[in-house]
Write a sequence for this structure.
DNA sequence: TTAAATTAGTGATAATTGTCCTTTATTACC
DNA sequence: GGTAATAAAGGACAATTATCACTAATTTAA
């Protein structure tokens, strides 16, 4: 059964992301897509609370979502921002089916495609190309995190800020500077002073 | 063809690591192992130089290896230490077959099992369990790096140091404190003062 | 075995960053 | 449309960390 409006329509970006790594027939993509659930969230809506069990990994179709950890004295530290075409969840809680240590919430009204762990494993088992795709994506993510670590241990706050602006020029218009500061590991006051240099 | 001395002998840890995730018959493990090359390196030996093409991912059988980046003014920043039963390489250069931006060298005489990218992809293609294994390992690595990032953006130097000692109590006996400092993103003088508290 | 290199600790000082505070501007929402 | 909430900037000061310099102990290697 082919549903061309889906293939050529609104989930084109997910298909493109997958096809940058492996090629899929229309039927294969339809089958892949059938393992996802479409969900809509409002700005400020909390998708995952620290302590929750985590049912899904989220592919962002539209909107902006962040993951963060809040320490005992109430300070929030941003782990990740996810714009369109990114994935986000609490990966530890999701993959090990344990309680979340991160919270995930929306900075804008968002549309996502949700994938349960069971469905992810089913995709991998039954279509090896999908396992290859996830391996490549996860490896790319690992490399990106190593770069962020190098930046954190080797660069000044100013360098880290301009590095972020370079990498994601669109981000600064959509995210409050206090959250960029949190992502960079500096106080919002310090970032405010850096940004005026 | 079964070679029991290998199965029960010196590469037992690699088999155990794989079998924590998927189970293998003796023949399967022999076949997997045949894709690796045994190599020996001396202390201070450079395995990968920045600028090199990277042929291998290295599984450490014995010894201690580090990866690091040296910035233009000559300061070295440690990305990773790899003890026995860990993997190490420049992952970006290895997976994309581009020039290394990290250098990899030995802190102790080391024995490794080297895996080329072609052989890794062959393992994944021909024995899906191995692709599942690499996906699980890479996912676990991703989660570990997210934790290190959270530590870097949310903890003081003192907290990061004691956190490292907690996680890897054996490390401090084998690694100069100047390198632990580099890994933690503080100067060796600062670490020296923290450690005496 | 001895000289050279590496490692570690510490003082003095400068630079960076955090914290607390107030003010102003902007945005969200009844 | 008006009030509340959020966001941003910056002053004043404290805390943290880096840098440079020097010494001592330990390890390495010819």
């Amino acid at each position: 059964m082919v549903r061309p409006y889906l293939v050529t329509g609104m989930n084109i970006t997910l298909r493109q992301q997958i096809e940058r790594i492996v090629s899929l027939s229309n039927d294969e993509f339809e089958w892949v897509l059938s393992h996802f659930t479409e969900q809509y969230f409002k700005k400020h809506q909390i998708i995952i609370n620290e302590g929750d069990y985590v049912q899904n990994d989220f592919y962002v179709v539209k909107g902006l979502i962040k993951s963060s950890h809040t320490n005992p004295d109430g300070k929030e530290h941003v782990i990740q921002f996810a714009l369109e075409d990114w994935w986000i969840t609490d990966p530890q809680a999701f993959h090990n089916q344990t309680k979340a240590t991160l919270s995930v919430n929306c900075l804008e009204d968002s549309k996502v495609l949700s994938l349960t762990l069971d469905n992810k494993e089913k995709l991998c088992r039954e279509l090896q190309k999908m396992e290859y795709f996830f391996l490549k994506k996860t490896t790319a993510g690992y490399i990106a995190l190593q770069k962020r670590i190098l930046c954190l241990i080797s660069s000044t706050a100013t360098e880290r800020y301009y590095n972020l602006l370079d990498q994601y020029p669109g981000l600064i218009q959509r995210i409050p500077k206090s959250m960029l500061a949190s992502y960079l590991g500096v106080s919002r006051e310090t970032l405010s002073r850096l940004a005026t240099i």
